[in-house]
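PROTEIN DESIGN WORKSHEET
SECTION A - STRUCTURE
LENGTH: 218
TOKENS:
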């Protein structure tokens, strides 16, 4: 793993931020976090040269590190405030969790793939970007013992929104999740208004790996 962050890397990140701004990401705090966080830390050496392209890449275990635009888009919708308690479902490479932590969130992140969980947990410990707690669990069940959460983010494409996640959302809190029956999912934001009432907003279409139940010990 390469933990060197050179002037070249920083220059490439600046260009990436300009690309994201040009695509419609306007939240300065989100753009600053992406500018500050070395994405190449989260990729295998073979992909380092491509780390600052606005593309998704494989990270093993049939998972991907999300396209930077997707990370920025979901993060912007979440409207993170300092000390927000955030549940992330789908740790993956850890890049999204690290962005949330840099924004001042207290991150609780779930990964269902055991090998990936251990790899990413070790990486996040070395990078030390902020307050991130990792869990090898079934994301469909959330983390009831740590609820309620101010914000939630799901980084996999769902066909439905698990009730357990809605139940663990604080009143006034929001969940950002890609959802739909087709291969492309509609980015959706759910805001909990009362114990029983939720407001739903739909945004652009995205492609994600599928949101699966259970855990995988391979």
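SECTION B - SEQUENCE
RESIDUE ASSIGNMENT:
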């Amino acid at each position: 793993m390469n933990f060197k962050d050179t002037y070249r890397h920083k220059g490439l990140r600046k260009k990436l931020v300009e690309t994201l701004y040009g695509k419609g990401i306007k939240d300065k705090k989100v753009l600053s976090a992406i500018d500050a966080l070395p994405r190449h830390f989260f990729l295998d050496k073979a992909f380092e040269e491509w780390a600052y392209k606005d593309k998704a890449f494989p990270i093993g275990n049939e998972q991907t590190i999300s396209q930077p635009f997707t990370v920025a888009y979901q993060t912007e919708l979440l409207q993170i405030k300092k000390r927000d308690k955030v549940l992330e479902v789908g740790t993956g490479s850890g890049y999204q969790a690290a962005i949330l932590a840099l924004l001042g969130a207290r991150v609780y992140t779930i990964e269902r793939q055991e090998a990936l969980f251990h790899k990413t947990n070790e990486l996040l410990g070395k990078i030390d970007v902020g307050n991130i707690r990792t869990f090898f669990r079934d994301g469909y069940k959330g983390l009831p013992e740590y609820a309620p959460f101010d914000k939630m983010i799901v980084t996999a494409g769902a066909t439905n929104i698990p009730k357990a996640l809605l139940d663990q959302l604080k009143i006034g809190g929001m969940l950002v999740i890609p959802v739909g029956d087709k291969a492309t999912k509609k980015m959706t934001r759910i805001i909990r208004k009362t114990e029983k009432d939720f407001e739903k907003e739909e945004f652009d279409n995205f492609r994600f790996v599928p949101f699966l139940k259970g855990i995988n010990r391979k």
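SECTION C - NOTES
The first helix runs from residue 7 to 22.
The chain has a mean pLDDT of 95.
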